[in-house]
Amino acid sequence: MDKIIRKTAFEQWAAPISNELFEDQVKTHCLDYYTKKLYMASFTKLLLYAQLHETESLRAISDSVFSEELQEATSLDSISFSQLGRRFHRIPTEFFQTIFLDLVRQIHEATDFQAGRKTTTPLKIIDSSTLPLNLNNHRWATFRKTKSGIKLHLRLIFMEDGCSYPDQAVLTNAKEHDRGQLEILIDDKDCMYVFDRGYLDYERFDRMTDEGYFFASRLRKNAVVRSLERFELPENSSVQSDEMVVIGTSQNRSENVFRLLQVLDSKGNQLNLLTNRFDLSADEIAELYKSRWAIELFF
Q: What would the pLDDT profile of 205-247 be if each residue is shown by its tens digit?
């Protein structure tokens, strides 16, 4: 009985992928031509299994095929890691991107995203993670002298029930700075964006404010700030201070005023939060920034 339950659960993970779209993309990119064993359907299930079990290498995936559960799901009794590697190299990124965007569309429909945004401002969280690569095999991915690397910039939609899902991803060389990706990841004026200090860009913050985009970010401790006005806080507020400020030096100062909040994290460390939202309470801003933890859990 347990085996049947596990198999059913595993198949359910793959169920949202549209068979019609999947087969169309396989045909469009000629991915099953001249294939004798490792068809795309089986390969995709292997990738899904590897993700669910946090498998870290192609060799580990190859070893996993000895699992009876996986053999039943993929119709494979063995596969070498070299075969997996060759299959990987044949698949264009457009294939995965198309499947991914269709899954995002399904989530939007299931959660009634467009209708919900009319009553609640959607919250989108942005962060990046660096993925190290072997220098000899990936010299194009400029990073450091001893290794290559790429950086995944991810945008999550955070939902009221605490769930979240990615709706956009950008890959760059690991050496590129985070802040250059805000132009791509911030594209919806009806949303609130939350991101960490790696994306700090005073000039971009001014443009976002002028164009009507809302954000909350973390400010560096050594940032030059001039306070213009202090706001009163409720007695039971978790926020330490709430001010209207301008940021930057006299040579590179923001044109707009912003709001600076000082809060304490779970370890008692002080965080300086910067936002262009003046319509929310200080505690509401602090709670919005706390939701950024969802993307840390995702990575």
A: 999 999 999 999 999 888 899 999 999 999 888 899 999 999 9
3-state secondary structure of 271: strand
Tell which residue, 150, 152, 103, 153, has the closest CA to residue 124. Answer: 153
126-147 per-position pLDDT tens digit = 999 898 888 888 888 888 888 9
Q: How far apart are CA 237 and CA 226, in angstroms?
A: 23
User: Number of helices (H) and strands (E), helices first, in the chain?
Assistant: 12, 9
Cα torsion for 229, 234, 238, 242, to the nearest 10°?
Answer: -10
CATH superfamily of 111-298: Transposase Inhibitor Protein From Tn5; Chain A, domain 1 (3.90.350.10)
Angle at 236 between CA 235 and CA 241, to 5 degrees: 70
Domain boundaries, the chain: 2-97, 111-298
Identity of the residue numbered 206 = D
Determine how many CB atoms are found less than 10 A away from the CB of residue 26.
Answer: 19
Q: What angle, rounded to 10 degrees, do the helices at 19-28 and 40-52 form? A: 120
Rg (C-alpha) for the chain, rounded Å, is: 23
Sheet holding 270-275, edge to edge: 164-173, 148-158, 123-133, 192-195, 214-219, 270-275, 258-264, 239-247, 225-230
Q: How far apart are CA 117 and CA 120, in angstroms?
A: 5
Residue 231, phi-psi category: left (phi > 0), alpha (psi -120 to 50), beta (remainder): beta
The pTM of the full predicted model, rounded to 2 decimals, is 0.76
